[in-house]
Design brief:
By secondary structure, the chain is α/β, with parallel strands linked by helices. It contains 14 helices and eleven strands. Strands 1, 2, 3, 4, 5, 6, 7, 10 and 11 form a nine-stranded mixed sheet that branches. Pfam families: Glycos_transf_2, TPR_8.
Length: 368
């Protein structure tokens, strides 16, 4: 059986840290906490779980802090989490089983990461990340912000264990990462390819679309990008053009992503919406159905926009079929949406309306 060091970096995480450690404690053999300047009760909570707490001056460099936490580890493997992550009970059991069975030949175990959720609890964004790494490989973190492990070689195992993100919105600072990037720019520091992409994404999130476009394009023009890098960047670039009102460029960029793989659900929904807006409902139906039918890439590390392959295309198909007078099909798709969004009053109202229309149509077709 392998042993595991849990390595974390924290700052002012008193609202989430205890919940995280409670969810994972049973599966790890030591807990290492690097605190980068907490002024709340974070360290007091950490002391309930471990005496391995390191105080580190914050220098606006997440990788430096991550690497410091790994330096303290003594077990066979290192697992990393953020304070607002948890393992649900079923995933804890999977990790305990993995701990018993993992071959020492495996250097890296990847896990799924459910990053974001809607108000109904549905996963809206899922990615796969390297989570458990062999300590003896000395993998290092790279990137000042949105840091990642640099793994150039090793034996991988892609597990079905899921890490669940439970962000505490009340204590988050939405401008933090953008400030760090701008500090780096002003100091003249060169951006890595990862920095370029994530700076573009921060600009995008802050609705600075023109500048975001420049950095997305700068990223796309780099050599040796993976197809997933290209597809992801083109999806973001198309979104910027949408918000700037340049719908022709939005479509051009969306179709450009098809050069790298089969159409992804996010791109299909974007094209479906264009035709829906234009009241070309049959064309819209084609793209929304394609979004639903698009296969999940096998063992892919692609960023998966779950909304675009679940309730969103069904909701839009409900609108399209209503406009085409296909009320039973519209009801069918609204019914599927209700399974994802049971409290959505708009969907509930749609279903009542469609039930009445279906009855009316049957009465006209089969009069007494």
């Amino acid at each position: 059986m392998i042993t595991i060091s849990l390595c974390m970096i924290v700052k002012d995480e008193q609202d989430t840290l205890g919940r995280c450690l409670l969810s994972i404690n049973e599966a790890v053999d030591e807990i290492i906490i690097v605190d980068t300047g907490s002024t709340d009760g974070t360290k007091e909570i950490a002391r309930k779980w471990t005496n391995q707490i390191v105080n580190l001056e914050w220098t606006h460099d997440f990788s430096r802090a991550r690497n410091r936490s790994h330096k303290e580890a003594t077990m066979d493997y290192i697992l990393w989490l953020d304070a607002d992550d948890i393992l649900l009970p079923e995933d804890l059991q999977k990790l305990l089983q993995l701990k018993q069975s993992l071959s020492p030949a495996v250097d890296v175990v990847s896990m799924l990461y459910n990053c974001d959720f809607d108000e109904s609890g549905n996963v809206t964004l899922q990615v796969r990340r390297a989570r458990l790494v062999k300590r003896s490989k000395n993998y290092l973190w790279m990137g000042t912000v949105h840091e990642d492990l640099l793994i150039e070689e090793g034996t991988f195992l892609d597990s079905d264990i899921v890490i669940t993100h439970k962000k505490n919105q009340s204590t988050s600072d939405p401008d933090r990462n953008l400030r760090i990037y701008e500090l780096l720019l002003s100091s003249g520091q060169d951006f890595t390819r990862r920095d370029i992409l994530h700076y573009a994404m921060e600009l995008h999130q802050h609705r600075l679309f023109e500048t975001a476009i420049q950095y997305y394009q700068k990223f796309i023009d780099l050599e040796h990008l993976t197809k997933e890098d290209k597809i992801h960047a083109y999806a973001k670039l198309a979104d910027c053009y949408y918000y700037l009102g340049d719908r022709e460029k939005e479509r051009e960029i969306t179709f450009k992503s098809f050069e790298y793989d089969i159409p992804r659900p996010e791109a299909c929904c974007r094209l479906g919406y264009y035709f829906l807006e234009s009241q070309q409902f049959e064309q819209a139906v084609f793209w929304y159905r394609l979004a639903i039918e698009s296969p999940i890439p096998n063992k892919s590390w692609a960023i998966s926009n779950q909304v675009s392959r679940t309730w969103l295309p069904h909701m839009q198909l409900g609108i399209c079929y209503y406009q085409l007078g296909e009320y039973e099909l519209s009801y069918h798709h609204n019914k599927i949406v209700s399974e994802y969004r049971p409290k959505d009053q708009g969907v509930i109202n749609n279903m009542y309306l469609l039930e009445e229309l279906i009855v009316q149509n049957k009465t006209k077709t089969n009069p007494m």
